[in-house]
């Protein structure tokens, strides 16, 4: 048995992972990211025990604990070098977590890398190169080359959400303007939907948002499926932003397989087909074997499974 921890700016999700690999039990708590890191890591340790005991096991049954965290990670030393969503600088995560479970092997990995590794193990077909893109609060990327996670020489490799899509465009949380993340994240989709509702007050999107209590990443998709023209424009524009970035990523890496993950990927073929059409049209060279594009299958479990497996690497 392994434990995977998906540390996010909003929630800490912890799962017990078996050897298949599948998540057999989960627990979570709000991150409350403004707290001292020691308190957040204490919650992580408590959740590890909670999820293990709820499944009928003890910590003595745990073979490894892996953490997937946002930011730049020093996986060798178990340190979170920098995580802007948490405002963490040089946090010795493994050392701190070891104070609770000193005898259990531990590892920390970038959250997008962890999710990519989980998807690779399950959906990568044992290929040599694999890339996973996660559309969520930001745009995460995880790269597997020669069947190993690619981190760059300094642990910061794979931050594909921060290449420039639009020169001098929308502000990004990284401090730059025009990043792909500022257009293709679900955060960006919500902003685009809110702007469309303001410009089209009679749109079905407004009704959908009111029914659900707020605008979400699904608002425009739901309204578009019911024939709302303004919503369809939002969806079309958003998916073009996503596809534009993916085509660039494919041109750079040419991976065997690329999967799209994050909650919005549950839209399945409704989002995959137009993205595929865009990529087919704009891929740099059409006379060679092409990257296989897929929707991720692990969804919210990807980070947990990938982090758990990273602890066994």
Explain how this protein is built.
This protein is of the alpha/beta class and 313 residues long. It folds into 2 domains: 2-117 and 301-310, ATPase, nucleotide binding domain (Nucleotidyltransferase, domain 5, 2-Layer Sandwich); 125-295, Nucleotidyltransferase, domain 5 (2-Layer Sandwich). The chain is built from 10 helices and 13 strands. The strands form 3 sheets. The chain has a 5-stranded mixed β-sheet. The mean pLDDT is 93.
- Global mean pLDDT: 93
Largest β sheet strand count, sense and barrel closure: 5 strands, mixed
Please tell me how large the radius of gyration is: 20 Å
Number of helices: 10
Task: Tell me which oligomeric state these chains represent.
Answer: single chain
Overall number of domains: 2
What's the architecture of the largest domain, going by CATH? Answer: 2-Layer Sandwich
> What proportion of the residues is helical, as a percent range?
25-40%
CATH class of the largest domain: Alpha Beta
Characterize the overall form: globular
Query: How many angstroms does the end-to-end distance come to?
Result: 14 Å
| Total E-strand runs | 13
Which class best fits the helix and strand makeup? alpha/beta
Q: Please report which band the strand proportion falls in: under 5%, 5-15%, 15-25%, 25-35%, 35-45% or over 45%.
A: 15-25%
Order of helices and strands: EEEHEEEEHEHEEEHHHHHEHEH
**CATH homologous superfamily descriptor of the largest domain:** ATPase, nucleotide binding domain
CATH names the topology of the largest domain as: Nucleotidyltransferase, domain 5
